[in-house]
Amino acid sequence: MQSASSSKFAHGEITAKLPNMIGFSLPSLGLNALVTAVFVFLPAFYTEQQGLGAATVGTVFLLAKIVDVIVAPSWGLFMDSYSTRWGRRRPWLALSTPILMLAVFMLYIPPESVSALFLFSWLCILYFGWSAWTISHTSWALELSRDYDRRSRITGLLQVLSMIGAILMALVPAIMERVATPTYTEKTAAIGWFMIVLLPLTSMICLGSLPERKTPNRPHLGFKRGAALVFSNMPLLRVLIANATLGFSWVLLQALFVFFVTYALGLEDWLGLLLACLIVGGLVFLPLWIKLSQSWHKHGAMQASMVIGAGTLLLLLLLPEGNVVLAAIAFMFVGANSSALEFLPRAMMADVCDHDHVQSGSERMALYYSLLQTSSKIAAGLTVFIALTLLGLVGFDPEIGDANSAEAVRNLRYLVVGLPALAYTCVVIMLLGYPINREQQHAMRADIEERERQAFGTQTDA
Which helix (DSSP H) or strand (DSSP E) does residue 8 occupy? Predict the structure, then answer.
C-alpha cells in the first residue's frame, strides 16, 4: 500500500494512483457483505432457527429501523458540523469498526436462548455503527472530486469492491455446503466470523491510503434555514423517493430469497451459490451502467437499468424446481441491475449536494448522504416487515416449511416478481425530466470552485 503522500490535492480534487484508490475503497467490501448478510440470513435465522416467529422478527426489524432512521441524519449533521485534527470523516470510520464487530458477533453467534429484546437491542447497535461507517466513508469518497464523470468512476469503484465483498460473503456458505452438510446456524456463525475479520482489516488499510480534501471554513447555517434548503431541494426529494423505491424492491427480493430458493425451487443446498450468482450478475453488468452514465447521463442510465431489471424478473416465474443450472443463470440476469441500484443514486447525490452548496454556501455531503441512506433504511425496515406480513396474507407460512400448499408457493413466486417489477416501473416514471445533467453540474461546479478560491485566498491573507 502506498502512503497518502503519493496523493495530490489540487483545485478541490484528490488525485491518487490506482493502488491508493483501491486501498481507500476497501471498506466497501464490508458494506454490501453486511447488507446482504443482514437481510438475507438474519430474518430466516431468527424466524426458523431461533423460533421467534415471522411476525415478531418483522416487527423487530421495523422498530430497529425506526431507531436507525433517527441515528443516520444525526451522524450526518454531526460529521458536517465538527472537524477534528484528523479530519471530518476519518475518526468516525475508525470508531465505528469495533462497534460493528461486537454487534456482528452477538447477532450471528448468539447465545442458545434469545428474545425479541435481544434481537432489537443488537440490531440497534449494529445500525448505529453501520451508519457511522457508511456515512463517514462514502462522504469522504464523494468529496474526492467534483467532476460529474469522475464521481461515477469513484462510486463505480466503490461498487465493484462492494459487490466483491458480497460475493466473498456468499461463498462462505457456498463452500461449506459443498464440503460438508452444515446447519443453518453453522452457516450463519461462519458469516459472522467472516465479517469480524473483514471489517477491521479494510478500515485500517483505508485510513492509511488517502487524505481528506481540504475545505474552507464554512458559513454557519441556522437550523431553520438549513432545513428549508433541504426540503425545497426538488432534485434531492426525487432522488430520495427513487432510492427508497429501489431499496424496497431489492430488500424484498433479499428478505424472501431464502424462502423462494428453498420452497419454490427446492434448492436449499445451493443457497450460497445462487446468492453469489445474484451478486455476480450485478458485477458483470456494472461497466455497462458506468458507461451509460458517462456517455448519456446518470438518471438515464438508472432508467435503463430499471427497464432491464423489470424484464429479467420475469425469468423467476418460469424457473422449474430442482434445476440449479437454470436457476444460476436466471439469478445472474436478475442481479444485473443491482449494481446500478447502489452506485448511481450515490453519484447523483453528490451532484444534488452541489445544488445545495450553491444555495447555502456550505458543503453538507455527510448530511445529504445520510439522507440518502435514511431513505434506504426506511425502505429496508418497512420492507422486511411488509415482506414477512405479505407471506401470511398470501398463505405462505415459513414455520411449516414444506407443508405449505402448492398455491402458497406459487403466490410466493408472484410476490417475489411482481412487487419489485412494479417498483422499477415507478422509478422510471419518477426520473422523467430530472433536472441535473452534466452541463448543469459543470456550471454549479465552476461557481463553487470560484467561491472556494476566494475563500482560501481570504484565509491565507488573514
Answer: strand 8-10
